[in-house]
Amino acid sequence: MNATRPRIEEAPTRMDRPLRVLLPIAVLALGIVVWEGVVRFYDIPPYVLPSPWLVFSTLVSDWGVLAASLVVTLTTTLEGFALAVVGGVGLAVLFNQSRLIEYSLYPYAVILQVTPIVAIAPLLLIYLPQPLAVLACAWIVAFFPVLANTTLGLNSVDHNLADLFRLYGATRAQVLWELKLKAAMPYILAGLKIAGGLSLIGAVVAEIAAGSAGAGSGLAYRIMESAYRLNIPRMFAALFLLSVSGIVIFFALSLVSHLALRRWHESAVVREV
Amino acid sequence: MPQNSITSPVTPGPSVVALRDVGKSFASGVVALDRLNLDVRPGEFLSLVGPSGCGKSTALRIIAGLSAPSSGKIEWHEPSAAKGRSRPSSTDHSQSRIGFVFQEPTLMPWATVAANVRLPLKLKGQAATAQPRVDAALARVGLSAFAGSYPRGLSGGMKMRASIARALVTEPKLLLMDEPFAALDEITRFRLNNDLLELWQSLGKTVVFVTHSVFESVYLSQRIVVMTPRPGRVFTELAIDAPYPRDERFRTSAEYAGYCRQASEALASAIAAGEPA
Q1: Under a CB-based contact definition with an 8 Å cutoff, are residues A240 and A228 in contact?
Q2: What is the rounded CA–CA span in Å between residue B164 and residue A50?
Q3: Which phi and psi angles does B101 have, rounded to 5°?
């Protein structure tokens, strides 16, 4: 069966590893050089398109403002993420333990997920204090992948292993802790990887929705503010920080996943050919 | 050797567990078992042989309490004569004395071999005193050196050994095995056959072994129960009166070949009998 599985890839060769790091960096460098060259050659004004160098120097000169905003946005993101993990895993476990609760609530979890967050954010801002509304947005966007993946994982238990637990008279709690949650771990971690990036998106969407209210100070708010003031270099600098945050979150969660699974799960094992 | 040789396997006497007119039909309408009667006698090595789908695995699962019979009943008898009576007991009670080996090794991939073998004790709240018993069970199957390994690093045969160690760790009286070696290559299977016989002789367990291989059942068992195709019933039974220990010499003997022919013929008749006229 393995032989026909289309997903089997060639094992990374010795050359692959440096190439996988070097090639994206080369593309990035090339892009920056072309960008800088185009801006200088055509003498494009910074309020239309700032050069990479100007963006970088703005990042340095405005660091005080930007760093404070970064902290605000990251705090929201991480809080939203943490709540999404607790809420997503918690709800999935609840659904798994009680079919009635699952039937009652699951449709609403889906509705929450399929309704665009951009449409929900303004409503939340009416009913909740702004920091709470932003946090709620981050949570709403991020919790569903955790819920869906954890549910899938909890239901993916090997039937024979489940029989084995029954044979030895395992309690409900033992089945949950020793079998279901452990078997679900790869799924949960995959959900977290998605949720990490989504909670950042949720935070940004909410900040932008709140932007005109003016009370915010996160990175997305800075982007809006800079746009109104035609401070395009600062816009780019803030955008850059948002991207870096997303990348760091993704790699941090990938590392956690790898460390948790490397001893036993196929996904974390490098095949030797 | 002589004290080990059991020449009369079909000793009458109280059974460890008996199935009485057990039927099993599934919600899908499939009737897996129909009035199955089976006595498992203390200390015997019993094989259930039948065409695939004849319900032999279902019978095993019913004995294990993993599946409830639709009709008929299961009678358990206390092997300890201390109380001077044999009484049918509840499913819960029976479970503590059963070891079950599945067709797949069924190990938890996230746990080491030792942790997998420890599982039954842990689930029973005996984790504190588990270590020497886990060590002993691993030693019995020759896996002591792999206690700290994860299942994915083991060969198919080693995984099955770990699975057997886990079944033995609670020191069950009755060992139920559901085609445990079916997925292994022949060389590994022969080795595990021999090791299983050695364990059976030294530990004095009762073994019910489900297989679709006539050869394997003849090599291992004292008694073979041949089942009909679905719905499964007992077609006939066969005593294999060859002494233990059995080894590769037995596998090439005329006696073995004779029993294999008998068993094959019985199985062929069972299949023919099950076919609609």
Answers
A1: no
A2: 70
A3: -120, 120
Report residue A96 as tokens. Answer: 């798994």
Cis status of the peptide bond prior to B231, with omega within 30 of 0: yes
CA distance B98 to B169: 11
Predicted complex ipTM: 0.86
Assess whether pLDDT exceeds 80 at residue B24: yes
Kind plus residue range of the DSSP H or E element containing A98: none
Q: For residue A25, what are the contacts with CB-CB under 8 A and spacing of at least 6?
A: none
Q: Does B110 touch chain A (CB under 8 A)?
A: yes
Buried b (16+ CB within 10 A) or exposed e, A80-115: bbebbbebbbebbbebbeeeeebeeeeeebeebeee
- The per-residue b/e assignment along B175-210, b for 16 or more CB within 10 angstroms, e otherwise, is bbbbbbbeebeeebbbebbbbbbebbbeeebbbbbb
Extended beta strands in B111-215, E state: 174-178, 206-211
Question: A159 CA to chain B: closest CA distance, Å?
Answer: 9
Partners of residue A185 in chain B, C-beta under 8 Å: 110
The 10 Å Cβ neighbour count of residue A159 is 9
Band the pLDDT of B6: cuts 50, 70, 90: very low
Max alpha carbon distance in chain B (Å)? Answer: 60
pLDDT in tens, B243-253: 988 988 899 99
Extract the tokens encoding B234.
């007992």
**E strand map for chain B:** 17-25, 31-40, 45-49, 71-76, 98-101, 174-178, 206-211, 223-227, 234-239
With an 8 Å Cβ cutoff, are B110 and A178 in contact?
Answer: no
User: B123 and A168 in contact by Cβ < 8 A?
Assistant: yes
Tokens encoding A173? 């709690």
